[in-house]
Amino acid sequence: MIRVTEIDTFIVDIPTIRPHVLAMATMRSQSIVLVRLRTSDGIEGIGEGTTIGGLSYGDESPEGIKLAIDTYIAPVLASCNVSRVAATMEKIGKYVAGNHIAKCAVETALLDAAGKRLGVPLSDLVGGGRVRDRFPVAWTLASGNTATDIAEAEAMLEKRRHSIFKLKIGKRTVKDDVAHVAAIKKALGDRASVRVDVNQGWSETDADRGMAMLADAGCDLVEQPVGRHALPAMTRLSARHSIPIMADESLHGPTDAFNIAAAAGARIFAIKIAQSGGLLSAQKVGAIAEAAGIGLYGGTMLEGGVGTAASAQLFAAFPKLDWGTELFGPLLLTEEILTEPLRYEEFALIVPEGPGLGVSLDKDKLAHFRRDRTAPVLHAVVGGN
Ligand code: MUC
Ligand code: MG
Questions:
Q1: pLDDT per residue over 85-120, tens digit each?
Q2: Residues recognised as catalytic
Q3: Mind listing the pLDDT tens digit for each residue in 53-68?
Q4: What's the pLDDT tens digit per position in 225-239?
Q5: Is the Cβ–Cβ distance between 357 and 115 less than 8 Å?
Q6: Predicted confidence (pLDDT) at residue 376 exceeds the cutoff of 80
Q7: Distance from the CA of 44 to the center of ligand 1, in angstroms?
Q8: CA-329 nearest atom, ligand 1
Q9: Fold for domain 125-350?
Q10: Are 325 and 297 in contact, with CB atoms under 8 Å apart?
Q11: Residue 356 gets which letter from DSSP?
Q12: Second CATH level (architecture) for the domain 4-118+361-380
């Protein structure tokens, strides 16, 4: 029986390299929630649970994620044999409803410890082994200005870092947004794939106009055009337009995946480990997509290095990843919190090879950037269930 004996959950605030303008918030920094835990056999596991824009993107905030872990999840962990990660997460689910991002952080730390214990990378544990060692990574153009976005895209192409660009729209009028996308696609031409993320910003009527014009402008897909719960509208839009819809905010785990697939509400899934409730649930979302003939894209909550490595380990094991990924989170930040940064080369992210996540935290950087400014200490876990 292997127990969690100590845990530390903390928030790290890191500035972004430029303002990142989304329909619901403008990010100037990212608040990363990290979990470090130690197990009774002396292994340290690390995990991350990060959201976007405080409480504006979803139901969990950085502060709420930390509270859910410290107050409700850690006491359950104390009574679990954590070498059995799926059983542990099942037990946590009995005591803690929802809170997918908090659960993802804890599950990631347990899987990291399990991988280190067995001496294998997470891709060998969660998906039955990796099928790729690298994959393409999109960059999000979200400066809020068309000329700046074109210059940024040109620089990324020149550096051979990204040739897929996701444009954040949904804040301005449909006409203005489409003009912005069309100008960028015209400048980049066949050198790049241009996609948009509306982040739920449109009504069905807006989406009908917008999707038709975006298809004409050469845009390759439309992510989450309408509200998270507007599945009937997504079904109607998918049936009316040849440009594919990608589900993001609508997709909070396997049940949503099944319902969207059954309703033909999207042709692509943006799979996120955080929104799904962890790697194990995200893996099931991938299986449902595969069975339903839905294309896969590896999504991000703009996590730092730990969450990005965890996502990479899972995406490396998906049999198909037709739409690539957007695992660029660490590149949007001014500071690196890993001892060895993740490697981005030739338009791709290289999946780490070491045991567990294959990454480790830079303790000096954490001490500097953690919000509570305390020295990092692991706290004893006391049982409650
Ligand atoms: C989202 O909605 O997809 C991913 C990339 C980015 O710039 O924002 C996120 C969130
Ligand atoms: Mg999105």
A1: 999 999 999 999 999 999 999 999 999 999 999 999
A2: 168
A3: 999 999 999 999 999 9
A4: 999 999 999 999 999
A5: yes
A6: no
A7: 30
A8: 5
A9: TIM Barrel (3.20.20)
A10: yes
A11: B
A12: 2-Layer Sandwich (3.30)
